[in-house]
């Protein structure tokens, strides 16, 4: 069932199960198909003696002309097939492919024999069933819109029997009973249906069975009881469909093309994110073929699988096997060679080997530009990949230019809800996020998510990526609770669909760790970072940049907890990896220099801190736009060192440069602005200009109270700083009040050994002595 504001919209699973059906109807099944299904079912129902007896009977006696008899028998066939079609369980759908085909073909044959008996007149059938309350809400939203049944649909001509089914379902607390009244026009060109009385297991039932993918118009809905648990819903069989979904279906059908049904099935499995099943299928097909071109195709597809599973070294091995065959059998400018170069480049990019990636991408682009029309989708893929490398290399304007070229081609060639368009919007959003243009980034990422939600199954890995990207933007904007919500959605999908050591899981754990760190919940942050670190260690040596990220993140938490030597050790490990794998002016190196500078600053080693901060600034000035937030961080950090060295005018100059950038690029309540106001206040306080200091400190506190949890360490910093100003202004009672608020937060948020707790306690002690002196 499906509905949105567009009444003619159906859910993406309708399209994918329809494509699975088309392919499975086209496949030639061998003699072992029945035995293989029986073996699979024995595993599912092991320990269930009655079902096992029925399965043995099926394996021994099944014939295609008995398909409906077996389908209507209350046993494993009906349960497994419809559940698999509802949940789009590719594994079971494929195992039951021959049975699905036989049931469909028998319905079709009966329909052709019976259609004239209806005399062209509409008639009613009934169905009683229970719906989960969440599904019932979707049905209510679909009123006047379309509703689909992706599975085979059993209906009855007996109204009372169907009403009894609905009534029984309504007695369950989590269900709503639905009594469907369905108007059927036999003249419509729609899904085949047939009276199965003569071929059913239950001959006494007057059942009309519809094949898969019936589409109805939801006409009316009314409550039938006082408890809000039983509803009558009137449906009308229709030949209408979701026009947008139809054009996307046509496109994906074309993309899942192949010489055989099995090849098409493999491509569709990849499209739907069923990588393990695709791998299993391609390995079988590879073993069965002796044709070199087919081998190259299967190696290439296995490369896709390994790439998506995050096993980059195996992906390259498969892609190179495909390339080797293509180089022997094809001319040097054949598009298939370009595909191989492109795929190898894609893996090197993910491994952080950007110059290698670029070299392969350029080989691919050179062939495609010579052999393809200028708006061919493969050119879009090439531009997209080059954009990705430039993005990773920190060359954001080049990246944006290539991503926009790719988008332009896709917009000309693809339906407006094609997942590949979403990928382009997502990539453009990533660049805008890196450039600090957060509103543009959010807009692009939301366009991507909207398309993915329309076009993909609800647990597809690309949806997880989309949630993750939106979380990143909210995190960049300082909206931590929103970021956490999106990161958790991404993690939920990844935990369901990916192997436990997949790099994307590490990315999810890292991102959740970062949010907790920014919210001051350090033990939670460390727990998530360590989960990511565990995965990243296993990924070496195929993905060193991920390990560097993990070292860096764990360093961040130790730094925030005041464990500076531990932080320094992790930051230096991260830097060492980056220096080996990245170009010398990569922005990620600047991040490492900046982090090391930050630790030295906290340890009071100001000349070392300044040296690292200046290295970071030099890289950022070369690679980023002049108002990029990372430059502001750099100016801010250098300002902090000068402040600690007592060079207040220099400090003020750098702090004001930082503030100017943040005011231009961030929301007015962004935590970075609070940091900026706080730092400028600190300089004025050290210069003895207490009223100016107080004004800036209060601006910082206002933002922090608005945006941070009540026990965030940055709030404690604000209270502490305001306390110092009041102490210097001799207003001791106000000073004490602010110091005590600061201490309360720090004791709740930080480990008891954290140096800043000791510092606040000392400040309170000194203040109390001062108050005693004055009262004496």
From TrEMBL:
A Gene Ontology term for the protein's cellular component: kinesin complex
Any GO MF annotation of the entry: nucleotidyltransferase activity
Keyword Transferase: yes
Top-level division of the source organism's lineage: Eukaryota
Family matches, as InterPro entries: ART (IPR000768), TPR-like_helical_dom_sf (IPR011990), TPR_rpt (IPR019734)
Catalyzed chemical reaction(s): L-arginyl-[protein] + NAD(+) = N(omega)-(ADP-D-ribosyl)-L-arginyl-[protein] + nicotinamide + H(+)
EC class name: transferase
Chain positions of TPR repeats: 259-292, 296-329, 338-371, 380-413, 422-455, 464-497, 506-539, 548-581, 590-623, 632-665, 674-707, 716-749
Pfam families given in the database record: ART, TPR_10, TPR_12
Keywords: Cytoplasm, Cytoskeleton, Glycosyltransferase, Microtubule, Motor protein, NAD, NADP, Nucleotidyltransferase, Repeat, TPR repeat, Transferase
Subcellular location per the Swiss-Prot or TrEMBL entry: Cytoplasm, Cytoskeleton
Keyword Transferase: yes
Similarity field: Belongs to the Arg-specific ADP-ribosyltransferase family. Belongs to the kinesin light chain family.
Name assigned to this protein: Multifunctional fusion protein
Organism: Adineta steineri
């Amino acid at each position: 069932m499906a509905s949105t504001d567009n009444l003619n919209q159906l859910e993406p699973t309708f399209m994918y199960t329809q494509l699975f059906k088309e392919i499975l109807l086209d496949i030639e099944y061998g003699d072992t198909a029945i035995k293989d299904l029986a073996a699979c079912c024995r595993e599912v129902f092991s320990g269930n003696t009655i079902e096992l007896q029925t399965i043995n009977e099926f394996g021994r006696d099944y014939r295609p002309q008995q398909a409906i008899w077996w389908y209507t028998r209350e046993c494993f066939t009906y349960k497994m097939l419809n559940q698999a079609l509802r949940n789009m369980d590719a594994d079971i759908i494929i195992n039951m492919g021959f049975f699905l085909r036989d049931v469909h073909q028998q319905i079709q044959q009966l329909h052709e024999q019976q259609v004239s008996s209806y005399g062209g007149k509409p008639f009613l059938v009934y169905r009683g069933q229970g719906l989960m309350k969440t599904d019932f809400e979707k049905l209510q939203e679909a009123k006047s819109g379309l509703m689909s049944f992706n599975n085979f649909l059993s209906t009855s001509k007996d109204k009372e029997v169907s009403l009894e089914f609905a009534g029984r379902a309504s007695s369950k607390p989590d269900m709503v009973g639905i009594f469907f009244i369905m108007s059927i026009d036999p003249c419509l060109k729609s899904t085949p249906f047939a009276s199965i009385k003569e071929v059913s297991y239950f001959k006494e039932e007057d059942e009309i069975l519809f094949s898969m993918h019936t589409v109805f118009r939801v006409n009316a809905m009314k409550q039938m009881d006082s408890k809000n648990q039983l509803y009558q819903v009137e449906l009308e069989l229709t030949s209408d469909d979701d026009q947008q979904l139809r054009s996307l279906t046509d496109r994906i059908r074309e993309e899942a093309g192949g010489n055989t049904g099995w090849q098409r099935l493999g491509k569709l499995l990849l499209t739907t994110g069923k990588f393990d099943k695709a791998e299993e299928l391609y390995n079988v097909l590879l073993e069965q073929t002796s044709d070199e071109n087919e081998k190259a195709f299967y190696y290439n597809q296995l490369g896709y699988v390994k790439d998506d599973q995050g096993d980059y070294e195996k992906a390259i091995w498969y892609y190179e096997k495909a390339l080797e065959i293509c180089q022997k059998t094809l001319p040097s400018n054949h598009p298939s060679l370009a595909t191989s170069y492109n795929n190898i480049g894609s893996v090197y990019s993910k491994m952080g080997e950007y110059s290698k990636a670029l070299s392969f991408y350029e080989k691919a682009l050179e062939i495609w530009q010579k052999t393809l029309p200028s708006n061919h989708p493969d050119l879009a893929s090439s531009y997209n990949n080059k954009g990705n490398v430039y993005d990773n290399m920190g060359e954001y304007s080049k990246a944006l230019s290539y991503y926009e070229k790719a988008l332009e081609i896709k917009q000309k060639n693809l339906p407006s809800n094609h997942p590949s368009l979403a990928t382009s919007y997502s990539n453009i959003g990533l660049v805008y996020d890196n450039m600090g243009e957060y509103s543009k980034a959010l807009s692009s990422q939301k366009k991507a998510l909207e398309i993915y939600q329309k076009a993909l199954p609800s647990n597809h890995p690309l949806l997880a990526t989309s949630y993750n990207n939106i979380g990143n933007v909210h995190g960049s904007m300082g909206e931590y609770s929103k970021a956490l919500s999106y990161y958790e959605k991404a993690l939920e999908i990844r935990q369901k669909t990916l192997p436990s050591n997949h790099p994307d899981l590490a990315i999810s754990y890292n991102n959740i760790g970062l949010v907790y760190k920014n919210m001051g919940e350090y033990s939670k942050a460390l727990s998530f970072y360590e989960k990511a670190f565990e995965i990243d260690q296993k990924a070496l040596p195929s993905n060193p940049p991920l390990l560097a990220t993990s070292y860096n993140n764990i360093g961040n938490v130790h730094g925030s907890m005041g464990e500076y030597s531990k932080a320094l050790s992790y930051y230096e490990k991260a830097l060492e990896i980056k220096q080996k794998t990245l170009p010398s002016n990569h922005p990620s190196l600047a991040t490492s220099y900046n982090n090391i500078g930050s630790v030295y600053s906290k340890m009071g080693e100001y000349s070392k801190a300044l040296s690292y901060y200046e290295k970071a600034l030099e890289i950022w000035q070369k690679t980023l736009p002049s108002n990029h937030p990372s430059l502001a961080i750099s100016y801010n950090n250098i300002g902090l060192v000068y402040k600690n060295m007592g060079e207040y005018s220099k400090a003020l100059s750098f702090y004001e440069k930082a503030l100017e950038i943040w005011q231009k690029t961030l929301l007015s309540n962004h935590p970075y602005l609070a940091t900026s106001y706080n730092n400028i206040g600190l300089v004025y306080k050290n210069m003895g200009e207490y009223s100016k200091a107080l004004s800036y400190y209060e601006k910082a506190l206002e933002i922090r109270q608005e945006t941070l949890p009540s026990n965030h360490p940055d709030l404690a910093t604000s209270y502490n700083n305001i306390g110092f100003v009041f102490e210097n202004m001799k207003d001791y009672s106000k000073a004490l009040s602010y110091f005590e608020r600061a201490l309360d937060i720090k004791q709740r948020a930080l480990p008891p050994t954290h140096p800043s707790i000791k510092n606040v306690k000392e400040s309170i002690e000194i203040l109390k002595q001062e108050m005693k002196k004055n009262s004496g």
